[in-house]
Amino acid sequence: MTTATAGELSLPLELPPETKDLQERTRAFVEEHVMPLEQEAERLYGRLPQEKIDAVKQAGIAAGLNGGQHSPEYGGQGWSTLDWVVVEEQYGRSTNGIYWHVPGAYNVFHNASEAQAEKYLRPLIAGKMKDAYAVTEAEAGSDPSGIATTAERTGSGFRINGEKWFVTSGDIADVLIVMANVIDGDERLPTLFLVDIDTPGVEIVADPQFTHHYPEGHPTIRFTDVEVGEDAVVQGVGEGEDMQRAWFLEERLGIAARGVGAMWRLLDESVEWATNRVQGGNRIWDHQGVSFPLADSAADAAAGRLLTYQVAVLADGGADLKLVHAKASMAKLFVSEAAFRCADRAVQALGGRGYMRDYAPERLLRELRVDRIWEGTSEIQRLVVTRGLERRGVERMLH
């Protein structure tokens, strides 16, 4: 367990010893157990053989990477936000989402009851179950206030009706975290429910294919008169909105951290290629048309890393949650846009090889595109940032 705080981080960035050790362990895991599988995963459209999935899972557990920020009481690691960010940064250096096989659980389970933690959280962290978060709908994407899924009270609990889109890992999940509005007279109370995938009325109605080749899908799941008990409610009726914000904050910061790792990998690949590739008797690196865009990528990567780490340190230091949320949106906005630019530059530097799926820049170009869309589009992040500038002030948003 590590406990990095704001006072322990200085400039230039010097990670606390425990966090540095975690960073090195994660890097070794990614380079030894994840990267060697990338091309095979690409050829198999992300779906590795079960024995290789199990090997990645066990290697992640052996490296102490399962359960991240969850309590050691349930098998987690008790990481700080900064610890978690350095891990996600290393995951971002890989392609095909192979690190998804490392067991974990959504931060919603921080609010689980003891019974829910024993039933779900402990086996999730141990790699015996898989969860999926069902919030997005056909008419409610980046703005969850438009959610139409309802939960009506019954004599023994609730009856859920609705349809969720883009349920990442929903095709292999054992339990779904479902956002629904509990109907209470004229009120609609946002509430999170834990719904077992085999509950009658839960049905996968579409499993669309996407640009990336990740291990798990993003299916559409329909809930038709799904009966759940009172014990399916997380924390309490009407408490879903706060947990939803916490989920968005973490997801957006994670995207930023992985985007920083992706820019690191892109620079490694493109600089290595350009400094060794000779055309017309000269290294292509010596042509400013090749090297200058990569200099821009280095600036993007360094700036994005500082911003992302700052948000993590603010979160660990107990800063105003609204400020942390706004800065997490700023980090997601900047890094997701910058990482895609960096991927495009790397593909261009590698020329024809940059367009081959055997090379990481091609895979990252496809994979990074969705980061400007999911967990809140870039346009939504700009809206959050502009509100932060108005309500929190320019100085607090920048410093």
CATH topology of the largest domain: the name is Butyryl-CoA Dehydrogenase, subunit A, domain 3
Structural class, from secondary structure content? alpha+beta
CATH architecture of the largest domain: Up-down Bundle
Helical content stands at: 40-55%
Mean pLDDT: 95
Structure description:
By secondary structure, this protein is an alpha+beta fold. The protein has helices at 17-34, 38-43, 50-62, 81-92, 114-126, 240-276, 288-316, 321-350, 360-368, 378-391, 394-398, and strands at residues 131-134, 150-153, 157-164, 175-184, 187-196, 202-206, 220-229, 278-279, 282-283. The chain folds into three domains: 6-105, Orthogonal Bundle (Butyryl-Coa Dehydrogenase, subunit A, domain 1), CATH 1.10.540; 131-234, Butyryl-CoA Dehydrogenase, subunit A, domain 2 (Beta Barrel); 241-398, Butyryl-CoA Dehydrogenase, subunit A, domain 3 (Up-down Bundle), CATH 1.20.140. Strands 1, 2, 3, 4, 5, 6 and 7 form a seven-stranded mixed beta sheet that branches. Strands 8-9 form a two-stranded antiparallel sheet. A hairpin with a 3-residue loop joins strand 2 and strand 3. 43% of the residues are buried.
SSE layout:
Blueprint: H1 17-34, H2 38-43, H3 50-62, H4 81-92, H5 114-126, E1 131-134, E2 150-153, E3 157-164, E4 175-184, E5 187-196, E6 202-206, E7 220-229, H6 240-276, E8 278-279, E9 282-283, H7 288-316, H8 321-350, H9 360-368, H10 378-391, H11 394-398
Parallel strand pairs: 1-4, 2-4
Antiparallel strand pairs: 2-3, 3-7, 4-5, 6-7, 8-9
Helix pairs in contact: 1-3, 1-4, 4-6, 4-7, 6-7, 6-8, 6-9, 7-8, 8-9, 8-10
